Each structure stands twice: as structure tokens, then as C-alpha cells.
């Protein structure tokens, strides 16, 4: 009985670290660009899209993290227990998506250093890749990753709050349109959900908890809170950026189509704001590089003892490959767009598997998954599968026109 409070105090840092790892994995270059572009298009009604995406995000993430924690297994192993071979398929989707996005993340880091120091983006990307690799070289890599994500997460939010205040957004209108939108954009909802809990992102924190040994029914209350904190952090950043962009465009100012987020910061706070954008872009990109590499490798490390033994080397190799592709070839825009759309479809597959696993005794033992969470999860699976398919059918062909 005496060990419970001690465990709670000891695990607090890990739980917060897992929350920030997931949140900062979501907050990448794509996150910044998507939020800016959709706000410019939908204006205050984009608040409704954010609200719906937050509800879906919480439902998906709390289900997934609880099932991972109570089973004590990573998602791919759970999937293989549900249906032999399914875990390998899920791992393939996640790793391919993680690698493609990491190329974009490395590019975003290069862009951030270019804004800050005026150096070539490829040089900045290379230096950022080296820094990310350094995190996994140190002995306490997990703790270093947690701290890194927390510090840069606070920096991103703090700087964006400053820009939001200077932009003077119409908060009242934003609140009204959040509940009574002028129009509803399904593509925007799928993109936001896919960018927050799609692909590898929702598993970043869940797998971090596995590595830290926070599993079992006793840990579920803390795990659930951590999962909600993670969505809260990512959503807070989304809302702050939304208001900053809304403040700028509401003044009749036009954003630079080549770099919409940068123009928001510059128009709102001048050259100082532009430099702030460089910091935010770099922080968002490099934390996403770390999260994508760690989580993608966590999806294959359990497949063999050799992969488990050398998982840290695999993570470093993942970052090296991402960096090399960007430096040598450049940013594969079409691949990133295609994988971004597919990301929205990975979620219903992954969540559907987890919900089945939640009711298999051989996976979760005597744990009883709450009925309301199962129903909530099933609604998300069906709705995201439909919206994701609709988006692919209507959005992908347009890319090739």
C-alpha cells in the first residue's frame, strides 16, 4: 500500500513526457501549414472543425492508450494476437508513413534554421538531424527525449501565444462559429484528425509508456489522464495558431501562398515575429523527427530479438535515411500529400483492431473495457472510415489533374 504514492510521484515525469512526445509529434510542419491554410479558407468556422477533431482525437486516443497499457503490449503485437499477420501490415503502414513524414519534418527543420540564421535549408536540415540523433546516443535516451519534447513544446506554445495576442483575433466570432459554423468541411476534419492521432502519432506516447514499464490496470487512471493531456497540448497549440491566423486575415491581410505560417507571424509581429516563426517551425519539426523515428521503430522492434537489441541503432538509422533523402533529393511533395491522406485511414484500422482486442481475454486478461468507450470508439471507426474514403475518392484524383 505504501508504494502507490511513491509510484505516482516517480511516474509523473514519464506520463508528462509521454503526453508531450505525442503532442509534439503531432505539432510538425504539416500541422502549422494545415491550420493556417484551413483558417484562411474557412475563417472563424474552422473552429467547428477543431472542436469535432478534438472530440474524435480524445475518443481514439483514450481507447488506444488504455488497451496498450492494460495489455502491456505494443500495437503491432496486439494486432498479431487479434489476427496473425495483421500486426505486420499495421507496422508496414506506420513505418512507411513515418518515414515519408520524417522527410518533410527534416525539411521543416531546415526551413526553420534558414529563417533564423539565413543558412541553406539543406545545411540546417543536416545539423538538425545530427541533433536529433544525439538524443538517442545518450545513455538515458528515453528521459532525454521526454525532456526535449517538454521544453520545446512550451517554447512553441509560448511564442505562438505572443503572436496571437498581437494579431488581436475576433474571439467572440470564433466562439460563435465554433458551434454555429457557416459550412462544414469533411476534408479539413479528416486532415486534422489524421494529423493529430493518425498514423504513428497516437502510438508515440502509448509505446513510450510501455518502454517505461507503466502497464496494468493499476496504471489506467494515470494513463488515461496522460492521453487526454496529450490531446489537450496539441489542441491548445492548434487553437492558439487558429486565433493568430484569424486575427491576421480578419484585418484583410493576405498570406504568402509559398509559406502561409511564416507570413502570419511576420504580419502579426513584424521581423521579430518572423524570427519567432523560425523558432516555432524548427521546434515543431525537430520534435516531430524524434517522435516519428522513435515510434516507427517501436512498431518493428518486437518482431525479433535482433531488432529489439539494436532498436536504438535502428532509430538513428531512420533519422539518417530521412535526412539523407531530403538533403539529396529534396521534399517529395506528392508522396507527403498521398501519405497524409492515407494517415486518416490508418486510424480506423488501428482503433478497430484495438477495440476488438479490448474484449479478448488472452490479450487484456480480466480487464473490462467500459461499454461507452467501446461505442464511442466504434462511432469514430465508422465515421473516420467513411470520411477518409470520401476524401481519398475526391481528393486524390484532384492531385493528378
TrEMBL record:
<feature type="transmembrane region" description="Helical">
    <location>
        <begin position="335"/>
        <end position="358"/>
    </location>
</feature>
<keyword id="KW-0472">Membrane</keyword>
<feature type="transmembrane region" description="Helical">
    <location>
        <begin position="42"/>
        <end position="60"/>
    </location>
</feature>
<protein>
    <recommendedName>
        <fullName>Divalent metal cation transporter</fullName>
    </recommendedName>
</protein>
<dbReference type="Pfam" id="PF01566">
    <property type="entry name" value="Nramp"/>
</dbReference>
<dbReference type="GO" id="GO:0005384">
    <property type="term" value="F:manganese ion transmembrane transporter activity"/>
</dbReference>
<keyword id="KW-0812">Transmembrane</keyword>
<feature type="transmembrane region" description="Helical">
    <location>
        <begin position="370"/>
        <end position="393"/>
    </location>
</feature>
<feature type="transmembrane region" description="Helical">
    <location>
        <begin position="186"/>
        <end position="206"/>
    </location>
</feature>
<dbReference type="GO" id="GO:0015086">
    <property type="term" value="F:cadmium ion transmembrane transporter activity"/>
</dbReference>
<feature type="transmembrane region" description="Helical">
    <location>
        <begin position="81"/>
        <end position="103"/>
    </location>
</feature>
<feature type="transmembrane region" description="Helical">
    <location>
        <begin position="227"/>
        <end position="249"/>
    </location>
</feature>
<keyword id="KW-1133">Transmembrane helix</keyword>
<dbReference type="GO" id="GO:0034755">
    <property type="term" value="P:iron ion transmembrane transport"/>
</dbReference>
<feature type="transmembrane region" description="Helical">
    <location>
        <begin position="123"/>
        <end position="141"/>
    </location>
</feature>
<feature type="transmembrane region" description="Helical">
    <location>
        <begin position="279"/>
        <end position="300"/>
    </location>
</feature>
<dbReference type="GO" id="GO:0005886">
    <property type="term" value="C:plasma membrane"/>
</dbReference>
<feature type="transmembrane region" description="Helical">
    <location>
        <begin position="312"/>
        <end position="329"/>
    </location>
</feature>
<feature type="transmembrane region" description="Helical">
    <location>
        <begin position="148"/>
        <end position="166"/>
    </location>
</feature>
<dbReference type="InterPro" id="IPR001046">
    <property type="entry name" value="NRAMP_fam"/>
</dbReference>
Amino acid at each position: 500500500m505504501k508504494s502507490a504514492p511513491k509510484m505516482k510521484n516517480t511516474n509523473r515525469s514519464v506520463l508528462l513526457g509521454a503526453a508531450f512526445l505525442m503532442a509534439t509529434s503531432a505539432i510538425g510542419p504539416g500541422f502549422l501549414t494545415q491550420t493556417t491554410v484551413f483558417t484562411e479558407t474557412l475563417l472563424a468556422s474552422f473552429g467547428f472543425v477543431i472542436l469535432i477533431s478534438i472530440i474524435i482525437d480524445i475518443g481514439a486516443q483514450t481507447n488506444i492508450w488504455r488497451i496498450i497499457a492494460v495489455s502491456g503490449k505494443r500495437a503491432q503485437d496486439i494486432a498479431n494476437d487479434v489476427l496473425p499477420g495483421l500486426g505486420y501490415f499495421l507496422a508496414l503502414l506506420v513505418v512507411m508513413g513515418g518515414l515519408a513524414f520524417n522527410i518533410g519534418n527534416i525539411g521543416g527543420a531546415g526551413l526553420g534554421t534558414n529563417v533564423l540564421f539565413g543558412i541553406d535549408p539543406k545545411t540546417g536540415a543536416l545539423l538538425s538531424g545530427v541533433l536529433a540523433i544525439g538524443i538517442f546516443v545518450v545513455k538515458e535516451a528515453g528521459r532525454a527525449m521526454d525532456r526535449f519534447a517538454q521544453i520545446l513544446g512550451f517554447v512553441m506554445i509560448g511564442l505562438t501565444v505572443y503572436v496571437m495576442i498581437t494579431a488581436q483575433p475576433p474571439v467572440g466570432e470564433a466562439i460563435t462559429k465554433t458551434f454555429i459554423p457557416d459550412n462544414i468541411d469533411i476534408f479539413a476534419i479528416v486532415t486534422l484528425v489524421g494529423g493529430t492521432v493518425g498514423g504513428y502519432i497516437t502510438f508515440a506516447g502509448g509505446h513510450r509508456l510501455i518502454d517505461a514499464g507503466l502497464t496494468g490496470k493499476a496504471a489506467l487512471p494515470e494513463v488515461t489522464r496522460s492521453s487526454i493531456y496529450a490531446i489537450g497540448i496539441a489542441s491548445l497549440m492548434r487553437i492558439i495558431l487558429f486565433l493568430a491566423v484569424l486575427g491576421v486575415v480578419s484585418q484583410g491581410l493576405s498570406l504568402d501562398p509559398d509559406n502561409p505560417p511564416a507570413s502570419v507571424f511576420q504580419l502579426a509581429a513584424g521581423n521579430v515575429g518572423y524570427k519567432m516563426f523560425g523558432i516555432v517551425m524548427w521546434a515543431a519539426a525537430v520534435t516531430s523527427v524524434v517522435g516519428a523515428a522513435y515510434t516507427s521503430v517501436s512498431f518493428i522492434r518486437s518482431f525479433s530479438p535482433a531488432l529489439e537489441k539494436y532498436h536504438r541503432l535502428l532509430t538513428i538509422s531512420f533519422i539518417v535515411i530521412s535526412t539523407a533523402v531530403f538533403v539529396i533529393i529534396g521534399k517529395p511533395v506528392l508522396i507527403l500529400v498521398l501519405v497524409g491522406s492515407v494517415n486518416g485511414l490508418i486510424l480506423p484500422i488501428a482503433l478497430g483492431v484495438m477495440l476488438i482486442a479490448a474484449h479478448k481475454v488472452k490479450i487484456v486478461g480480466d480487464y473490462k473495457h467500459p461499454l461507452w468507450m467501446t461505442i464511442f470508439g466504434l462511432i469514430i471507426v465508422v465515421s473516420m472510415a467513411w470520411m477518409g474514403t470520401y476524401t481519398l475518392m475526391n481528393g486524390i484524383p484532384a492531385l493528378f489533374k
